[in-house]
């Protein structure tokens, strides 16, 4: 059996088109390299009109593998969604097919690694084949209850028939490959007591290998581009997949757990995040108290002081 200390793992990071995203990505990769470089595969989903070859734009130690996958924007019609669900599912499909990762982590470019995480995640996910997704599930790190009800309406609109009074529209709705795929996914999730919208908060969560394999076996990763026009958040989309394959979620946000994540800003001041032994934090770019530059500088200095040989 693979030891938790050397379990190979993968990270899925969508990278938006804004120029600042490259600088954020570089700092994120540096933070991963400072604490968990061995056996890491970083999948960077390049969401730019032209491919940027992110694996060449970012530097990392030889023990880390960098992979850049371009999300084809020209395949998209005009649409409201940002296409983030398609980006993340593309990354997860690649991880499942091309790596032996024992788990996958989903991060944003405004996430940051501030401590070791591999042993804690591996031991949590490897010991229970029913557990798929860990992070901020039912509550946030500061104990606030999470509410998924805001996602109920868009999910119901996405999965219902367009009109029962116009049979020709119903027929077209059934034939539409996007709605057909998602309706099938939703129906399977409901069999397993899916609550509309339930998920672990994006910006920092982990997924088990068992989950990736079950989702692939069910055909749900065959064509991630089906999600390119779907206007629901990617963490919500992944949550639906969790229930569709009969698996479950668990919180990992208490003191001593891995994920110190919040939708906007940080759940605690930088020094307290370290004191609570969080390893992955979000979001560093829009905190109410500290600027992004201050937060990144603080943790860059801390990881350099902790292990000068790994700092870059």
Q: What would you say this structure looks like, in words?
A:
The protein has 312 residues and is α/β, with parallel strands linked by helices. It has a single domain (8-306), classed as Alpha-Beta Complex (Spore Coat Polysaccharide Biosynthesis Protein SpsA, Chain A), CATH 3.90.550.10. The protein is 38% helix and 16% strand. The chain has helices at residues 20-35, 54-57, 84-98, 118-126, 152-159, 167-175, 177-191, 209-217, 234-244, 270-275, 292-306; strands at residues 9-15, 40-46, 64-70, 103-107, 111-113, 131-135, 204-208, 248-251, 259-261, 280-282. Strand 9 (259-261), helix 10 and strand 10 form a beta-alpha-beta unit. Helix 3 (84-98) packs across helix 8. The longest helix has 16 residues, at 20-35. The protein is globular, with a radius of gyration of 19 Å.
Question: Which key features would you list for this structure?
Answer:
312 residues, alpha/beta, Spore Coat Polysaccharide Biosynthesis Protein SpsA, Chain A, 7-stranded mixed beta sheet, 10 strands
């Amino acid at each position: 059996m693979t030891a938790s200390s050397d379990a190979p793992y993968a990270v899925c990071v969508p990278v938006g088109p804004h120029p600042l995203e490259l600088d954020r990505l570089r700092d994120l990769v540096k933070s991963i390299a400072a604490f968990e470089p061995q056996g890491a595969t970083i999948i960077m989903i390049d969401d730019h009109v032209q491919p940027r070859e992110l694996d060449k734009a970012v530097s990392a130690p030889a023990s880390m593998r960098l992979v850049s996958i371009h999300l084809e924007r020209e395949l998209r019609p005009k649409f409201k969604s940002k296409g983030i669900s398609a980006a993340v599912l593309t990354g997860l499909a690649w991880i499942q097919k091309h790596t032996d990762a024992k788990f996958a982590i989903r991060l944003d470019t405004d996430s940051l690694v501030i401590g070791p995480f591999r042993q804690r995640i591996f031991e949590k996910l490897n010991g229970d084949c029913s557990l798929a997704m860990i992070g901020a599930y039912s509550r946030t790190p500061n104990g606030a209850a999470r509410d998924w009800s805001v996602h109920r309406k868009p999910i119901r609109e996405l999965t219902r028939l367009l009109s029962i009074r116009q049979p020709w529209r119903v027929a077209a709705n059934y034939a539409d490959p996007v709605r057909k795929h998602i309706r099938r996914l939703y129906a399977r999730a409901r069999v397993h007591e899916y609550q509309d919208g339930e998920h672990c908060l994006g910006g920092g969560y982990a997924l088990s290998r068992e989950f990736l394999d079950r989702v692939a076996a069910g055909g749900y990763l065959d064509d991630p581009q089906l999600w390119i026009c779907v206007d629901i958040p990617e963490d919500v989309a992944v949550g639906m997949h969790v229930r569709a394959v009969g698996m479950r979620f668990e919180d990992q946000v208490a003191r001593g757990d891995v994920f110190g994540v919040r939708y906007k800003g940080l759940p605690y001041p930088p020094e307290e995040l370290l004191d609570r032994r969080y390893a992955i934090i979000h979001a560093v770019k829009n905190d109410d108290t500290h600027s992004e530059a201050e937060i990144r500088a603080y943790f860059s200095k801390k990881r350099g002081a902790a292990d000068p040989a790994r700092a870059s």
